[in-house]
# Entry
Amino acid sequence: MSAAAPLSLPEALASANAWPFEEARKIIKRIEVTGQKEVLFETGYGPSGLPHIGTFGEVARTTMVRHAFRILTEDRIKTRLLAFSDDMDGLRKVPDNIPNKELVASALGKPLTQVPDPFGTHPSFGAHNNARLRAFLDSFGFEYEFASSTEYYTSGRFDAALLHMLAHLDAVMTIMLPTFREERAATYSPFLPIHPRTGIVMQVPIEKADAGAGTIVWRDPETGEAFETPVTGGHCKLQWKPDWAMRWYALGVDYEMAGKDLIDSVKLSGRIVQALGGKPPEGFNYELFLDEKGQKISKSKGNGLTIEEWLTYASPESLSLFMYQKPTAAKRLYFDVIPRTVDDYLSFLDAYPRQAFKEQLGNPVWHIHSGEPPAPETLTHDNQATTISFGMLLNLAAVANSEDPAVLWGFLRRYAPNVSPQNHPRLDKLVGYAVRYFRDFVRPSKTYRDPDAVETEALKSVLVMLEGLPQDASAEVIQTALYDVARAIPRYQDLKAKGATPERPGVSNDWFSMLYAVLLGEARGPRFGSFVALYGIAETRALIEKALRGDLSREHALFLQSQ
RNA sequence: GAGCGCGUAGCUCAGUCGGUAGAGCAUCUGACUUUUAAUCAGAGGGUCAUGGGUUCGAAUCCCAUCGCGCUCACCA
# Structure
């Protein structure tokens, strides 16, 4: 690097330009005006479905901004992160992925917290999904406070803001109406009364608004009966965009990010807050995730990658890295990106201890681990420390043709005898991920070939050779014996090989290529003597016998059919 | 119609306040106690979509154009 003196931590912080710092500075600028001593971050959540990969992304990213803010302000300003569940929303449609659909269907239109729980484990469907959300967030160790919309409405925490909005109804309508077509504009109301008899969230026009009494008058379209309902105390809910605005206003939300699809909604809600005399929160719009074909990932389509799928093949930290990187660029979120993201994460972790403050603050692992990334786990071989990459493990699993983590650990231990799952727990997890990735993605792409006549004879010779070896024969002994078997077979002789003589010909690559293609279903493979030593002599003989019977290719064909 | 993202090596993409283009894979070459790779070293390969502008200097900032794609325009 250059001869310039490394920056001190405060200097490095002042110039840190990773996006969480940029976001944090927007909040700092905001509170310099107000002089407030507390900052509220919010993430929203619609509890009609289960938490998903986008939920994780939003909370992870907001947490990164929050942490950057805490460091920049040296914790002089208190911060809170509110995970707000819009559980008073009316149920529009019965989800496909639940039991007891009739039970839920009977409550269509009611607030989610009034819909019976189809799983029978919670007081309501909303409560059930809220619990799922919290368990989900807790499993990643996020720090947050949970908030239930129903609870806030019914407890009266929103009453003042609701009355305030009622008093400014004209201003709200002026903002909202131009966004609708005529038919909708004629019936629109930001206040949705809960029907006092049916409990349904009503979408009806307001016939009269009484700001003084804090009520609205509306009419049941079916019976024609008129009702006067207080906007307070949970008797009314707000339409989505005014609801968002009212929440920002009532709670004093300082920061909330949202997806690109909500850009217009953010603007609109922001204008409503201003009409109420408040200030919309800081925030930015992140890009949406695309599937492998560049289509938007949506829950209903079921395309793209679920968070469960990611966590089957890789760690939560690697997913955090994916969320950290370029939040404003549309990225394809598909299986292919997993190995690369995992390896990127490992390299960032590896580089961190060697970096100066300035670089560390721009290193994603600093943001992922809230400033305290763990030390990288390395293997020591010939006094050199190396980080085992995910790609390398995938390679290993493929060549060892094994879904057994113990086999991979066998290879690792041969390379660095002192390693174990006990002293390298994160590497052990990585091994587990690699094995699963192999099982689901690598194995299906194998192609086994049946041996021809010459190859059949050659493999039989290998069988005889293996039978003559002791069970604990070393990799070198096996390797040498393999060469000797091939040396006698004209097809595999190579007279141009280094040190080859007519009496003792060399052995060509084709010999090993054949073993890989027939026995492992791969074009490339491991040093075969080592493979046999690890895999076991008896097991290798069984493998060869299966190949000779044609079972390997047959079983693989069946396996592929079953996929 | 409104808003946004992307366009960099054959492929997938990095490129951190502007300073002589990078990685992985792929290809090729070589080394490593019998041509095998969980190895190492090296090579080739890019008018950074196009055209302008700012600047001593632009992949990077600004404007325009082209191409690809996404989102929003009745619900949340």
About this structure: The first helix of chain A runs from residue 9 to 15. Confidence is low (pLDDT under 50) at residues 1-5 of chain A.
